[in-house]
Structures are given as structure tokens and as C-alpha cells.
């Protein structure tokens, strides 16, 4: 029996090319497709969206995540795709979400609050410290706290 792929976490950032007047519909489409396909593939993660940036974390079997990322990289709704990190992990941080939505406006799957114009994780119990840390890393890759 062949060995199964190791679990990896891949984080990338990119510039949104979605026109403002098409943004709401395009983002709804992205989340609908991502949540459905990721659940089927066994991929978990989160997508941070600001006016100009995407930062996404994908977690799952290496070959699956790598294949999915190559499809994402070719998507015309963003440009300047840069891998921030790709590393083996023992545990998934976003294991409860096929694709958690994290944004400055609207509802979020991961509770957030605004502190002086900066997004930050809302108060949660200690079991979510890994999520808090990874969300901070994701935001810091694009300076989202200052955008």
C-alpha cells in the first residue's frame, strides 16, 4: 500500500483584479466553489480579503493542495500570486472550515472585531490561539492592519 501524502500548509497572497462593481458577486462565487470543491478534496483553510489583496491558507494532502494551488494561480481574478509559505504540518489550524472567510466588511466565519480601524480576532477561548497567530501572519503579509 503506498504512503499517503503528508499534510502541508500553503499560504499565498495576490492582488485582486476584480472590478469594484463585480466584487460582491465574484466573491460569492469564489466562496461557493471553494467550499464545495475543498470539502470534496479534503482541503481546509481561510481566505482573507481586503479591497486590493487576497491572502489564502490551504491545508491538506500535499499533492491535492499543490494541484489546487496551480488552478488557483491561473485564475484571472487575481495577479501577482506569491507563495508566502509552503510547509509540512502536524495539525491543521483551520480544520473546521473548507474555506473560512475573513474580511474587513460583512460577516465572517471567524469572529473579528474592529479596533481603531484594524481587524483583529474577537475574544475566543484559548483553543483558537493557533488560528489567531495564523490570521495575524496572513494579515501581516499584506499590511492589512494598515490598509
From TrEMBL:
Sequence ranges assigned to domain BLUF in this UniProt record = 7-100
Q: Source organism's superkingdom?
A: Bacteria
Q: Name one Pfam family in it.
A: BLUF
Extract the InterPro entries matched here.
Answer: Acylphosphatase-like_dom_sf, BLUF_domain
Query: Can you say what this protein is called?
Result: BLUF domain-containing protein
| Species of the source | Pseudonocardia nematodicida
Amino acid at each position: 500500500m503506498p504512503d499517503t501524502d503528508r499534510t502541508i500548509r500553503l499560504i499565498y497572497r495576490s492582488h485582486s483584479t476584480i472590478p469594484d462593481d463585480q466584487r460582491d458577486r465574484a466573491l460569492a462565487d469564489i466562496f461557493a466553489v471553494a467550499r464545495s470543491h475543498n470539502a470534496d478534496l479534503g482541503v481546509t483553510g481561510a481566505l482573507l480579503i481586503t479591497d486590493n489583496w487576497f491572502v489564502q491558507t490551504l491545508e491538506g494532502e500535499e499533492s491535492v493542495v499543490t494541484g489546487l494551488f496551480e488552478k488557483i494561480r491561473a485564475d484571472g481574478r487575481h495577479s501577482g500570486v506569491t507563495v508566502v509559505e509552503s510547509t509540512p504540518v502536524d495539525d491543521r489550524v483551520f480544520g473546521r472550515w473548507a474555506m473560512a472567510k475573513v474580511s474587513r466588511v460583512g460577516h465572517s466565519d471567524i469572529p473579528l472585531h474592529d479596533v481603531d480601524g484594524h481587524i483583529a480576532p474577537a475574544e475566543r477561548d484559548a483553543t483558537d490561539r493557533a488560528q489567531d497567530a495564523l490570521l495575524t501572519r496572513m494579515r501581516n503579509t499584506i499590511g492589512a492592519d494598515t490598509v
